[in-house]
Amino acid sequence: MTSPYEIRADHDARTIVVYQAYGPAIADAALRAGRFVAPFSFHRMTWIKPSFLWLMHRSNWACKPGQERILGVRITRQGWEEALSRAVLTTADPAAVARAAVHVQWDPERSPRGAALNHYSIQVGIGRHLIRTFNDDWIVSLTDLTPQVRKAAALIRTGHAAKARRLLPTERPYPLPQALEALCPDADRGAAARPAPWG
To answer: Within 10 A of 184 (CB to CB), how many other CB atoms are there?
Structure first.
């Protein structure tokens, strides 16, 4: 039994991978530079997501206009935890949310076919006053995951989910420091058993 609010991610001792979807112009420029550059906007919030399948739901497996390219953004755990330390839940007092440098919200995790599951995935919005730090100091590398996304999507559509699973990142619980646990809503509903997302 685990809490329905749990960060799961591809991470190692120093870094964590988050995912973003962009159009080709932004993705290509970023991949060439190894950082986000124009036409990426530094003047509005950018959302990062450690759940690969949630982003697949959001981007319809890289089929939505403006979200045709999927990037794996490897950032430092120090940066990730700094972002969380400055975050406010989007369900908090509106004035506090408006002042916050970082927003956090929890949305139902998704299966490969887009069904809502009974546990939640964290989404982290980096505000415009912190984006330069995210870009210049936290990013370790960018990876274009679009080819494997398209291959996995084709396998899922044709009923080969087990083969598709081998193409997807392995995510495991992230050890959230105790000081940051307030960002996980109180699981008053009781712990929820985590269903296998490939079921």
So the answer is: 18
- Strands, E, within the chain: which ranges? 8-11, 15-22, 46-48, 69-76, 87-89, 102-110, 116-126, 139-144, 172-173
Beta carbons within 10 angstroms of residue 146's beta carbon: 16
Q: Are 51 and 169 in contact (CB under 8 A)?
A: no
Segment 97-145, tens digit of pLDDT: 999 999 999 999 999 989 999 999 999 999 999 999 999 999 999 999 9
Residues making up the chain, counted from first to last: 199
* pTM, full prediction: 0.90
pLDDT tens digits, residue range 51-104?
999 999 999 999 999 999 999 999 999 999 999 999 999 988 999 999 999 999
Tokens encoding 20: 């973003």
DSSP state letter for 190: -
Tokens of 62: 């890289």
Spell 66-76 as b/e; 16+ CB within 10 A means b.
ebbbbbbbbbe
Residue 191 has pLDDT above 50, yes or no: no
Q: Which two tokens stand for residue 149?
A: 């996304």
Which residue do the tokens 């001792």 mark? 13
